[in-house]
Amino acid sequence: MADEVILLDFWPSPFGMRIRIALAEKGIKYEYKDEDLKNKSPLLLQMNPVHKQIPVLVHNGKPIAESLIAVQYIDEVWNDKSPLLPSDSYGRAHARFWADYVDKKIHEVGLKLWRTNKGEEQEAGKKEFIEVLKLLEQELGDKPYFGGDKLGYVDIAFIPFYTWFKAYETFGNLNIEKECPKILSWAKRCIKIESVSKSLPDQDKVYDFIVEMRKNLGIE
Q: What is the DSSP string of 82-144?
């Protein structure tokens, strides 16, 4: 009997994009359900009763919440191709550390760039965002990917935020290519990979969504 795989998601969510990339890397067919976050479906509330948030991976009726946990689950369950985490214990621990760093920093600091139009807050957010990217540049080093010679767990954790870069740059008044050229080169390598390119929405579409969000928040 074939696996039933469902992804409860919202298209601009970088967290949901992680799971989409991981499923694509493994060649797993799944049903995609785009949620209306203002009117959450009974299935989402049933599958994630604690946080009531997307994304949720549902595998044969069993829910797996939190995007990085779901990516690890995908790697463990469908372990016959395209390993996402390193095979050795230290390598896995190292990858989890940096994925966790991305998880805690990029989205949170990115909010300071687009959810305010106050100069001081934005300037502080811009400084912090560049510091975060520069630290990630150091970790990347001269490797093509954070995973080494091929796309890996940290790459999958980070690359979805590339779709938000236009918004970060526009509202944060920064130039990522000028400040962190290695990060932009890495991102361009990643989006040439089919599992990434077909899983990520267009930057302009995400930017338009964020413009609407700012209007709704009364920021414009």
A: ---S-SSHHHHHHHHHHHHHHHHHHHHHHHHHHS---HHHHHHHHHHHHHHHHHHHHHHTT-S
Alpha carbons 140 and 148: distance in angstroms, whole number: 9
Conformational region of residue 180, where left means phi above 0, alpha means psi within -120 to 50, and beta covers everything else: beta
CB 77 within 8 A of CB 28: no
* Cα–Cα dist 184/162, whole Å: 9
pLDDT tens, position by position, 73-91: 999 999 999 999 999 999 9
Instruction: Please classify residue 22 by burial: count the beta carbons closer than 10 Å to its beta carbon, then call 0-12 exposed, 13-18 middle and 19+ buried.
Output: buried
Question: Which pLDDT tens digit goes with each residue over 191-219?
Answer: 999 999 999 999 999 999 999 999 998 88
Render pLDDT for 17-52 as a digit per residue (tens, 0 to 9).
999 999 999 999 999 999 999 999 999 999 999 999
